[in-house]
Amino acid sequence: MTSIKTIEQLVDFMSHSTTQELSKMLRHIYIPKDTFDSYATWSEEGYTRNCLARTDDYELILICWSPGANTAVHNHSEQHCWMYQISGILKEQRYSKPQGQLNLTRASELKQGQFTYMHDRMGFHSLTNIGSSRAMSLHIYVAPIDQCQIYDPKKGTLETKVMTYDKIAEPLI
After folding, report:
1. Strand 135-142 to strand 80-87: parallel, antiparallel, or no bridges (unpaired)?
2. Cβ atoms of 49 and 61 closer than 8 Å
3. Terminus-to-terminus CA distance in the chain, angstroms?
């Protein structure tokens, strides 16, 4: 199986693949970290979402994490989500679907070159940059996610969050 060494190769493959083919091929991504530098934006207050490519069928997002940055516990609106850890170390925590209180079902660390997969049937999850330096991760969604459900720990309820980008690649790849 041929490896994917550029963002353009990944986008081309995604444009012509089924979800099953995509799942198998993603294990063969070897895109150098510096390839993503020109797409990256940073915020000292958390993480940024940078859209690299988007069609009706998929969305590719580069997330840039400051040390300690974390997401709320969230779902993926019934979409498949693969995440490729480009640099740094993230901690992923998975939960059963919240019903007033969260129940942690799994915790793992994602290091450079590793993948994880998430779908709503697996529950909800959160991500945290547990390293002392910045981190980058590539999120591959089949199809785009315009909103998701996030868990509000103060209220013990789920709320809808509209997703936004901090940067859109010009032109989209």
Report:
1. antiparallel
2. yes
3. 23
Residue with tokens 């998929």: 58
Alpha carbons 110 and 82: distance in angstroms, whole number = 12
- The domains located in the chain, with CATH, are 7-168 (2.60.120.10)
Which structure tokens are listed for 77?
């609106």
Residues 79-133 pLDDT 10s: 999 999 999 999 999 999 777 678 999 999 999 999 999 999 999 999 999 999 9
Q: What is the pLDDT of residues 152-169, one digit of tens each?
A: 888 888 899 999 999 998
Tokens of 74: 């969230």
Ramachandran class of 163: left when φ > 0, alpha when ψ lies in -120 to 50, beta otherwise? beta
Neighbours of 6 (CB within 10 A): 14
